[in-house]
Amino acid sequence: MENTAYYINEPSGELPQDLTHQIFSSSDARKFHSSLAQYKPSPLVELKEAAKELGVKSIFVKDESRRFGLKAFKGLGASYAIHRILEENPEIDIFCTATDGNHGRAVAWSARMLDKKAYVFMPAGSTTARVEAIRNEGAEVEVVDGNYEAACARAKEMSDRNGWQLVQDTATEDYEEIPAYIMAGYFTHFKEMEDSIHSLPEPGIDIVFLQAGVGSWPAAAAWYYQNRYGKNRPQLVIVEPAEAAGFLTSFKSGKRSSPSGNSKTMMAGLNCGIPSTTAWEILRNTATASMAIEDSFMEQAIRMLHNGQGDDPRVEAGESGAGGFAGFLALINDNRFAELKEALGISAKTRVLVYNTEGATDPQNFQKIINQTPG
Ligand SMILES: Cc1ncc(COP(=O)(O)O)c(C=O)c1O
């Protein structure tokens, strides 16, 4: 079991009853987002041919690749958190964060909309396209000499020193309120499907693949599903890059732990260190399973979504955006996951949901991937 690329959990379904819970329960994110001029629900598309090919009943993709023109869903979280922060402290002028790309761009965009300033810290190796996308939103960007955790430490140090407002999307023991606002902002896209596959009393899907970085987004999803459906919630599978699998490591060791891999993956948004405290508390009790995949599955997923099967709509997915679908492909095609596939009861009746959380945020790499012939 130790070396397997997955973990099968026995979730209790219990949700923490703390400050985070209060913030989530009182989230009015959808109302807030609807008040923004750029707001539009993201499309939900069905891949009928792909479902036939992969042997399941249906595959739905919630496509976030054009959300707010930022090419990722993260604007939902940052904009709502900054709105909540300014409600309490309208005089704040400077926001700060660490990011591997999408969250930083979202913070910079949200600050710019309000004529505020943003400072963003990024890990070494961040691609030029992702750095420039944040600068283009008017933020100051510094690439630190270290990994994602080093960028987080630098953002905190600079915020403490200069009196900037830190808007970090990962929670630690003494920093949980703002990550909870960010997570509460993500609820908007789950609610957007309440007139289709998220209607009551049971969801129109059986299994959801959730790609995880620090875990705030998959945990927001898990909280939503547990809160809305209780024991009727769909099965939730966490997907991470093999070399940065903090949740898989945590599940296997039974406690929140840093990943042991070498952090080499093109899935930049998922290339994080230790899971967020809040996310771990939620996901340990709600996730059905956790799996780790190599980049080759992500590349295959990007090509499949881009090419479209038969008449299926084509979807532009970036490296992290394709993570959930890549997890599903690995489950179907890689024998290492045979036991997990069986445990999840995947069959011709299964209805699958994935979120394409990101479009081509690194266009050059995207082109490279779609031009490759599978080896
Ligand atoms: C495109 C994309 N998808 C998913 C995630 C995962 O979100 P989280 O870090 O909250 O787990 C990220 C995080 O940056 C991301 O950029």
TrEMBL record:
EC number(s) recorded for this UniProt protein: 4.3.1.15
A Pfam family per the record: PALP
Keyword Lyase: yes
Keyword Lyase: yes
Superkingdom field: Bacteria
NCBIfam families in the cross-refs: PRK08206.1 (NF006058)
Name of the protein described by the UniProt record: Diaminopropionate ammonia-lyase
Native source species: Antarcticibacterium flavum
Lineage of source species: Bacteria, Pseudomonadati, Bacteroidota, Flavobacteriia, Flavobacteriales
